[in-house]
Amino acid sequence: MTNPRFDKSKLPSRHVTEGPARAPHRSYFYAMGITEEEIHQPWVGVATCWNEAAPCNIALNRQAQTVKTGVKTGGGTPREFTTITVTDGIAMGHEGMRSSLASRDPQLGEAATNLGASPFRVFRTITLPLSLPGVLTGCVFVFVPAMSNFVIPELLGGGKTVLIGNLIRDQFLKARDWPFGAALALVLTAFLVILLVLQSRASRRLTEGRPLKAGPRNA
After folding, report:
1. Model's pTM, two decimal places?
2. Do residues 56 and 86 make contact, with C-beta atoms less than 8 angstroms apart?
3. SS3 for 145?
4. Does any domain span residue 159?
C-alpha cells in the first residue's frame, strides 16, 4: 500500500518503506507503534543534542518534541535521534578537554611531548593553531553584542555597565558629538570586518589542511 497523498519515489525513506520487498523492514516500524499511514508519509529526521550532562542540553528534548509536533501537523513522520555533544564547561581543566577539539589529533600532542616540548609549547604550536577558528568565532560572538546591544544591559543592570554600543549611542543622542560617534562606529565596524576576515581565512586553512602559523617550528 502507498499513500496517495505523497510520491515517495525520490525520497530516501522509500528504501525501507515501499514495496513488497520491504515488508521485513516495515515490521520493525510496526513494532514501534508506527501506523501504516505514517510509514508511507515522508520521513523527517529530528536531530537533538539532548543529554543529562549539562544544563544547556537538558531541555533540548522538549524542543525536539515541539519540532516533531510541527512535522506531524505538516503531514510528515518525524523520527528523533540524538547526536554526540561535548560540554565544554565540564570538559575544561582536565584531559576531557581534548574531546572538544575535534580537529586536534591527540597523537600530535603526544609526539610533541615525546620530543621534549613543554606543555606551553604544545599549546602554542598545536592546540592554538587548530582551535584558532573557534577562538576567533568566540571573539566575534562576544564583540558583536558589546558593539550593538545597549538596551539589554540597561534592562538587566539598570544601565550601570557601559558597553561600546552605549558609548556610541550617547555620542549621538546625549553629547551631540556626531563626528566622534561616527568615527567610533567606523573604527569598530572596520575592526569587526577584519576579525571576520581572519576567522574566515583561519577556517578555510584548517579545512584545506594547510598549517596555521603560530610560532617557529624546528624541522
Report:
1. 0.49
2. no
3. helix
4. yes
